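pasting DUF2087 domain-containing protein for the record, 35 residues
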Amino acid sequence: MLTVHDDCSALRRYLVTGGLLSRTRDGSSYRRVTG
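structre below
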């Protein structure tokens, strides 16, 4: 199986830090930031 990124947790973290994703306080849910 071909993967784009081996570390999914790090990828999510980078997206949150970059402002492309937001997450709930408890980290159970992520949403794409629009606008």
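The first strand starts at residue 21 and ends at 23.
Residues 16 and 35 are 15 Å apart (CA to CA).
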